[in-house]
Amino acid sequence: MSRRVAVVTGSRADFGLLRSTMEAISAAPELDLQVVVAGAHLLPPDETIDEVRDCFEVDAVVEMQHAGRMGRTADATATGRGVVGFTAAFDRLDPDVVLVLGDRIEAFAAAASAGIGGRLVAHVHGGDRAEGVADESMRHAITKLAHLHFPATPTSGERIRRLGEPTDSVHVVGSPAADGIDVMSPLDDAMFDRLGRPRVAILHHGSGLAAATERAWIEAAIDASLRHGPVVVLRPNHDPGSDVVEQAGLEGAARPGVVRAGHLPRQAFIGLLRRTAVLVGNSSAGLIEAPVVGCPTVNLGPRQAGRERPGSVVDVDRPDVEAIADAIGIAVGRDGPFDHPYGEGGTGRRIAGVLAGLVQSGIPRKRNSF
Q: Does domain 182-332 have CATH number 3.40.190.10?
């Protein structure tokens, strides 16, 4: 009998990373893929659940966030709603393994539901450090709920072991963000023209900071980027503070040389990175995917504080136009390819291989190794 693996995807960001693992699980005769879609995938205007449905049959849908409601309290409420919804979904699907990625509230709610409910939890990209909003706490909390760990780097793997997880439960597999990037082409001329043929792409998310600070960062980013040529501003994730970032981005798009774009599917986003000179903002893509394709990054503010980064990344710690403009100049002078710690692809196949080869029966009892 095949081992049922429920893969939980809660946003456009984690689906882009999880897709190769989902494909590998689906292709493995020892495994049976179950797809659970939740959270930000269901929100307008993008409703990126449709992208998941274009690739996989969706087995369950779990509502969490509500459109127009952002902030820490809204996230806490959505997390509770998610725990209830995932519990009902897992009770119906009866997966042998629940696999989650990263540090978002969707992953935390699913891991809490599965772990407390007596199901084996597998966690991809655990052990990283990234300040985010509550990301640092949630990522390591998921690690302590999980039974099987798939960190992206040796440093993250060692951090998981230092958290007390057994060595034989930790499999350093690289980042699935690197999977398939080598075959993703640069953006075609027609799409590049619609985006204003940008020299600078901005992808900046809310960080749970004061509204005035969130606005100061995105406004400074746009002002500084315009000094280096045409700019495209991409829509942020549904994170606390992103409503302020989104509004400032819309206002910035009224300026000559600035184009505001909505959600780009992963292949189009990677294609944009292959054509633009620099990525500016606070997305993890600037530290993981961008270096893989040779695109330098100017990383803004505290959201990615603590995350491993290659030499293609220039950090700016204050929302100052001059500082950001100078950093962009430094970044575009750094030619790739760039060394990075996140592997060279094949992560999805490695994860599926470990899941297919599991020999234990039942759920391991959690016990710190120290």
A: no
Euclidean distance between the first and the last CA atom of the chain, given in angstroms as a whole number: 36
Q: List CB contacts of 284: < 8 A, sequence separation 6 or more.
A: 13, 130, 304, 307
Report yes or no: 119 and 95 within 8 Å, Cβ to Cβ. yes
Task: Indicate whether this model's pTM tops 0.85.
Answer: yes
Say which residues have a Cβ less than 8 Å from residue 224's Cβ, sequence separation at least 6: 280, 321, 322, 323, 324, 325, 328
User: Whole-angstrom Cα distance, residue 156 to residue 5?
Assistant: 24
Q: Among 80, 81, 126, 72, which Cα is nearest to 99's?
A: 126
> Side by side, which strands form the sheet with 31-38?
60-62, 31-38, 3-9, 97-101, 120-124, 148-150
DSSP structure string for 172-230: ----GGGTTGGGPPPPPHHHHHHTT--SEEEE----S--HHHHHHHHHHHHHHHHTTS-
DSSP string, 9-67: E-SHHHHHHHHHHHHHHHH-TTEEEEEEEEGGGG-TTT-THHHHHHHS---EEE----T
Distances (CA, A) of 141 to 152, 179, 241, 300: 17, 26, 23, 26
Overall residue count recorded for the chain in this entry: 370
Q: Is the dihedral of CA 358, 360, 365, 370 positive or negative?
A: negative
In this prediction, what percent of the chain has a pLDDT beyond 70?
99
Residues of the chain with CATH 3.40.50.2000: 3-180+345-356, 182-332
Summarize pLDDT for 179-225 with one digit per residue, the tens: 999 899 999 999 999 999 999 999 999 998 999 999 999 999 999 99
Answer for the pair 11, 101: CB distance below 8 angstroms, yes or no. no
Among 295, 236, 243, 286, CA closest to 263 = 236
Which residues are within 8 A (CB) of 150 and not within 5 positions of it... i.e. 6 or more apart? 122, 123, 124, 125, 126, 171, 173, 347, 351, 354
Residue range 3-180+345-356 in CATH 2.60.120.40:
no
pLDDT, tens digit (0-9, with 9 covering 90-100), for 276-322: 999 999 999 999 999 989 999 999 999 999 899 989 999 999 999 99
